[in-house]
Amino acid sequence: MTFLQIVLIYLAGVAAGFMNVIAGGGSMVTLPLLMWIGIPPPVANATNRLGVLFESAIGMKTFHSSGIRLQKSIVPAIVFSTIGSVIGSMFVSSIPKDLLERVIALMLLAVAVLVLLKPGKPNISKPSQLLTALIFLGVGFYGGFLQAGVGFFLIGAITLTYGYDLVKTNFAKVVIVFVYTVFALVVFLSKGMIYWVPGLVLAAGNVIGAYFAVKLSIRKGSGFVRWILLTIVILNAVKYLFF
Fold first, then answer.
1. Rg from Cα positions in the chain
2. Which end of the chain is more exposed for a tag (fewer CB within 10 A), N or C?
3. Which domain holds residue 226?
4. CA 58 to chain centre
5. Is 10 exposed, middle or buried (CB count within 10 Å of its CB: 0-12, 13-18, 19+)?
6. Least confident of 72-81, 111-120, 169-178, 233-242
7. What pLDDT digit, counting tens, does each position of 140-161 carry?
8. Number of domains in the chain
9. How far apart are CA 110 and CA 11, in angstroms?
10. CA distances from 30 to 3, 20, 27, 112 (A)
11. Judging by beta carbons within 10 Å of its beta carbon (0-12, 13-18, 19+), is residue 194 exposed, middle or buried?
């Protein structure tokens, strides 16, 4: 890698770490960059998980140090997301890329609608335990398979199931992502799909972005996070639908 490529990867990591912790979609910045420097798409997809792992770890630590706590009821979401992630990381999809992107866009817009319903006071019925398991299995599967945009879907799933405010929702999200990413990385490592140098440079940037995202979300509160989240969700949905 050239010095310029290292700098660009690091800066992309900072942006992605901030986006992923406060909302989602950071991998939509880092994946194209990793492929642009010549990393094959499947390897870029796997290498990107190093940054996701480190940003989730620093996010968890910073949320916890700031006094944010989660209930034990989140454990089933962690378990089912992890199971789905392992399956997704081993799965080879036959869905055409254009169709998949449009499906993702529609799901992102659905998340935006859910956020507008104001997390913590959902206007829809809480799903059954079976439906909850299926929801987190599905989100985990997507996270293991692609990762890009999974934060949006986790926010929707956590909001629907637990009714947390957006600060606590983001904490739950980074905990879930950290756990299932550990298992997904084991799968990718077993297949020799990790490029360590760009992955660690990316991770260094992700950590910085994630740290400041946590501090900002706690200081500004759920109302501020909601508008940031909506902005990022809608921009990503438009990208998938029209570009």
1. 17
2. C
3. 3-242
4. 14
5. middle
6. 111-120
7. 998 988 787 788 889 989 988 9
8. 1
9. 30
10. 17, 11, 5, 23
11. middle
